[in-house]
Every structure is written in structure tokens, then in C-alpha cells.
Design brief:
The structure is a single chain. Helix content is 22%, strand content 25%. It is α+β, with helices and mostly antiparallel strands. A 5-stranded antiparallel beta sheet has the order 3-4-8-6-7. Strands 1-2 form a two-stranded parallel sheet. It has a two-stranded antiparallel ribbon with strand order 5-9. β6 and β7 form a beta hairpin. The radius of gyration is 16 Å and the shape is globular. The N and C termini lie far apart (41 Å). The model has no long low-confidence stretch (mean pLDDT 86).
């Protein structure tokens, strides 16, 4: 992802991240852009899976292309779940949830995706990889994670998502 964005920045080609493709408003469809310039549709699906899990802290790090059912399948053996179920749960990815500021059926009780994000791994337009989050709640300054939540891929491409997990319900 970093190499693609670095190259695209050098040659002035637009890049549109493509996650699960569940968008109902056509946001994942690349515009033809400026004639002769082209557009890259960057498929994020191969960046999938659980990267890290801190069971005690209930913090899970997933690659951005991980689909909803795979998230729960990875957390369930550890007695955890996200309790985040957008309508497109089976066909959407964690990166898409964050990029589009997703909400779900349990968001009133458990929060929307922005309430579950602990940190992000993001590749900026010039190919630089940054990680956000990890600071104590009392830290001063803006929360850079929330800058990318809902940004629709305009500020960078989300490649990793650190999420707060919840215990599985008793019944």
C-alpha cells in the first residue's frame, strides 16, 4: 500500500481504497478523473486477519480488509466480541467501518465504530505509514485516530485497526 501511494503521489494519479464494496452510494466506484491521468482502485481485501490480541486489555488489532464474520470468529475463542453489527456486517470490512464511520444494531448500547477504535495504522498519500492511538486518555492534544474515522480514505488509507473488544454475552 505504501509503495502504491508513493508512486501514485509521484505521478499524480488518484487512489481510491476499495474494501468490501458494500457501499450503497457508489463511493467505491472510481471516477475516470482527469482525462489521461487515470485512477487506481486499491483493493484492500488481501490485508485481512487478526494481527494481535491482548485478551486482558480486550484490545484487538485487525488488518483493514478483515470482514465482519472473520472478526467475530477470531475473537470468539477468547470469549470476546466487538458487538458491532452494521447492516452490511457480512459483506463489509473493519477498514470500511472506520473509513465510513459505521454504526450498527447495537450501537446505542455498545457505541459506534468511533467509540471502539483505540488506534489506527494509516498510510498517508506520500507512502508514509503512521500509527495513531496508544496515548493515555489524559494525554493533551487532538486524537489523530478520530481524524481518520469517517474520512472516507481522503486523508490516508487505513491498513490496520486497533479495536476495543467486549466480553461475549452470557446468553
Amino acid at each position: 500500500v505504501a509503495d502504491v501511494l508513493d508512486w501514485a503521489s509521484e505521478v499524480d494519479v488518484a487512489v481510491i481504497p476499495y474494501g468490501g464494496g458494500s457501499s450503497v452510494c457508489g463511493g467505491v466506484e472510481p471516477d475516470v478523473g482527469t482525462p489521461g491521468r487515470g485512477v487506481i482502485s486499491l483493493d484492500m481485501e488481501a490485508l485481512a486477519g487478526l494481527i494481535d490480541l491482548e485478551v486482558t486489555d480486550r484490545a484487538a488489532r485487525f488488518a483493514a480488509g478483515t470482514y465482519g464474520p472473520a472478526v467475530n470468529d477470531a475473537l470468539r475463542p477468547h470469549g470476546l466480541t466487538l458487538r458491532h453489527f452494521p447492516q452490511s456486517f457480512e459483506f463489509s470490512t473493519v477498514g470500511g467501518w472506520v473509513a465510513c464511520r459505521g454504526a450498527g444494531q447495537f450501537s446505542t448500547r455498545y457505541g459506534k465504530i468511533e467509540d471502539l477504535v483505540v488506534g489506527l495504522d494509516v498510510v498517508l498519500a506520500d507512502g508514509t505509514l503512521i500509527s495513531t492511538g496508544g496515548a493515555p486518555r489524559a494525554a493533551q492534544g487532538p486524537d489523530l485516530s478520530q481524524l481518520f474515522v469517517g474520512s472516507e480514505g481522503t486523508l490516508g488509507v487505513i491498513v490496520g485497526v486497533h479495536l476495543r473488544a467486549r466480553p461475549l454475552p452470557a446468553a
